[in-house]
Structure of AMP-binding protein:
Amino acid sequence: MIASPVLTDQYQRSLSDPEGFWAEQAGAIPWIRKPGRIRSTDRDGLHHWFTGGKLNTCYAAIDHHVGHGRGEQIALIYDSPMTGVVRRISYRELQQEVARLAGALRAQGVGAGDRVIIYMPMLCETAFAMLACARLGAVHSVVFGGFAPRELAIRIDDAEPKVVLTASCGLEFDRVIPYKPLLDEALQLATHQPTRCLLLQRPQCPAELDTTLYSDWQTVVDEAEPADCVTVAATDPLYILYTSGTTGKPKGIVRDNGGHAVALAYSMKAVYNLEPGQVMFTASDFGWAVGHSYSVYGPLIYGCTSVILEGKPVRTPDAGTFWRIVQDHKVNVLFTAPTAFRAIRKEDPEAALSKQYDLSSLQAVFVAGERCDPATLAWLQRITGVPVVDHWWQTESGWPMVANQLGIEPLPVKPGSPTKPVCGYDLQILGEDGTQLGPNEEGYVCLRLPLPPGCLPTLWRDTPRFRNAYLTRFPGYYLSGDGGYIDDDGYVFITGRVDDVINVAGHRLSTGDMEELVSSHPAVAECAVVGVACPLRGQRPVGFVVLKDGQTITGEAIEGELITLIRDNIGAVAWFRNALLVKRLPKTRSGKILRKTIRQLADGESFEVPPTIDDPLILNEIRALLAARKVGIAFER
Ligand code: COA
Ligand code: AMP
């Protein structure tokens, strides 16, 4: 075993005395009323942290720091390589901006418990919007700007927002993407209608505003009286963040106020080894959990400076953007998805651009969202010369579940492993029958209940789905949806999802959702969408389609129509580029589509033909088709 005395002690204590452990961590948060109970279980059997506690997350993230000598410290740095704009906002300025926006929202009738959807690009105003909601006790739901109107409409109908906040456009490489037409289309699709939309005008593409529904953001903010922080319960929801599940309807992950604040503050030191006043640069869209936790709430609650990038790590203007930002803003910790580094490496394999910049401020690089392949890990270690930490987490947890906890005691890195369970997480590998598996045995990665603070208490207005999706399969455990194993040294290895969720360039998507859309095409009899390995994006979806009898549409035509269908309904980020016509799909004798076998064929994995397959010959046909179309890493070269 690779033992680490301090870490082992803390980890054991977090499991043997969770209430004592988390009561201590809760001391870092400015409570309005300290929690009466550290952990409790409600009548529905759901677990809650810090019941009876009162706080305001916006106060903890801003006002508390202004009142304790951090008013002039920079809280946010916005860097836009496409426009050349760099904006630095102190904690005091942030307080003023957020209080005014909160006042504007209050003037629109937004109060505690009301939902507000935020459909915006990577701007300071997006962070202001999240914090302004928190200030009022309103529940925000940020929707990733790359999602198509249908996805936005689904979220509008589920969250039922009183107000929607948006901007006139986002900037993607050399393209300006107008947001208002997307929001208008979503509102046409949605049943629920907000009472008002506030739109931030951007000079690259001002929008015409129909004043019956839209108000100009700046005008209402200028007219607003600043709003103070309201007191909320630790267990009140701070936000809903929708994420892909196995069906078309996304899951509304709920985050509470108290547990979230405590967990993030704890992680800033224990995992990321940062000190208040230091600089964290998390290159993730606000629309993902990583952007919520480590572009906004974590760094601010802990008194750090957070760098926000509007742009991509490549092509804006080149693959040196991350390194330039590290130098210019003296970044201490850089965090992004491995796919972003693969994109940089593809354009700058020798990392020549990194040598043009002073990276001496950098203490560590963190990656998550997908397994970090050993080649990318080694490349990063070589060019940065600092620890590179792969760590495992999910939207559901909101903070790392497995990591190399640099702030407690760094462990030797094993490429391919995100290292060991983080304090508070009792991680077990379970077999099909729910028994705990031994070292090196692969099974379901599960967490013994209750989950630590910060993790989802339930799904938005859908506790039955929460139970079904996560708690029913193995009673007493949370089912992560990932497979994996623990080695002899206690290192965790994640081998991939065991469900229909895939990860495309750091974007979590559902192949089940894509299958529902593909099946809705009038010519399609049935289909399978599988996530095949992709050297740059980690995974990408590929469709296999059987046409209804008598259809005369060509393979090329149906492929084009299905690509457009997915792009228009989910978004370009789905990266759905292939829909291959097959005569039949490989199935078991009981009719279950063998999606895993199709994926293994495309990925060139060796596998045994499932004994239950109804027609083994179909696999040869699919292999020949993949080869002919050069689809899948086994056939691309
Ligand atoms: N708004 C509108 N469109 C968007 C968008 C947004 N916010 N984000 C992406 N898109 C579009 C892109 O313009 C592109 O459209 P196209 O097919 O018309 O060219 C498409 O969606 C695919 O985008 P993406 O998958 O991001 O590919 P890319 O080539 O633009 O960039 C990476 C590749 C790897 C650099 C980029 O995906 C990346 O930085 N990923 C990291 C994601 C991340 O940080 N995840 C969470 C962290 S854990
Ligand atoms: P998301 O909810 O978008 O953060 O995606 C969570 C999923 O991404 C997990 O269930 C994993 O499948 C995958 N994932 C995240 N981080 C890692 C990692 N470090 N290693 C392997 N898979 C990861």
